[in-house]
């Protein structure tokens, strides 16, 4: 982009800072890239809230939410990256999606009762957002999800609200871990 705030794919900006930089950019392409990123983040927050409630109540992450979210996130994040003149960011987002999907699929295959296919599909969507920022964010989000999930489960076990045979919805922890990772530099 000429004249505007240039996104350097080698730098790792947290999404909120990147959003402000693009919207405050000096040219129309930067502004539109910022708006598209804002829409993608708004979509994240909206769907994260819906999915967290559904997953806690029913231990399901419905395809009717995940599939359209995945497509919309790909379009919004991809268009933002291309408008910013950074096709590498789009490639990294798609690769991040594949990496996180593959990692969670492996976990599902190793322990199907511990990791559902809804979690695997959610990982693909989250990988788009995390890969958009950096590959390191994939790792941080996953670590955060497991740590927060383990701590929460330990608290519930100590409070005797759960037993060792109880199941805990993991989707909300994935969403919180990813949101936290997206807000911090890598």
UniProtKB/TrEMBL annotation:
InterPro entries assigned: Peptidase_A24A_bac, Prepilin_IV_endopep_pep, Prepilin_peptidase/N-MTase
Signal peptide feature range: none
Coiled-coil stretches noted in the UniProt entry, renumbered to this chain: none
Residue ranges constituting the Prepilin type IV endopeptidase peptidase domain according to the UniProt record: 51-148
Pfam families associated with the record: Peptidase_A24
Protein's UniProt keywords contain Transmembrane: yes
Presence of the UniProt keyword DNA-binding in the record: no
Keywords: Membrane, Transmembrane, Transmembrane helix
Bilayer-spanning residue ranges: 20-46, 66-83, 89-107, 138-159, 166-184
Family of the protein in this entry: Belongs to the peptidase A24 family.
Official protein name in the record: Prepilin type IV endopeptidase peptidase domain-containing protein
């Amino acid at each position: 982009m000429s004249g505007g705030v240039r996104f350097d794919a080698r730098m790792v900006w947290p999404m909120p800072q990147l959003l402000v930089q693009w919207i405050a950019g000096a040219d129309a392409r930067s502004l539109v890239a910022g708006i598209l990123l804002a829409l993608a983040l708004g979509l994240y927050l909206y769907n994260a809230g819906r999915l967290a409630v559904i997953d806690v109540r029913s231990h399901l992450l419905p395809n009717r939410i995940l599939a359209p979210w995945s497509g919309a996130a790909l379009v919004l994040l991809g268009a933002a990256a291309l408008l910013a003149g950074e096709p590498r960011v789009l490639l990294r987002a798609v690769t991040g999606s594949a990496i996180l999907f593959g990692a969670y699929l492996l976990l599902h295959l190793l322990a199907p009762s511990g990791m559902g296919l809804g979690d695997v599909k959610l990982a693909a969507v989250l990988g788009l957002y995390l890969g958009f920022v950096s590959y390191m964010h994939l790792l941080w989000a996953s670590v955060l999800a497991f740590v927060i999930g383990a701590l929460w489960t330990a608290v519930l076990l100590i409070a005797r609200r759960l037993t060792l045979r109880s199941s805990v919805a993991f989707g909300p922890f994935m969403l919180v871990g990813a949101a936290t990772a997206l807000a911090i530099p890598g």
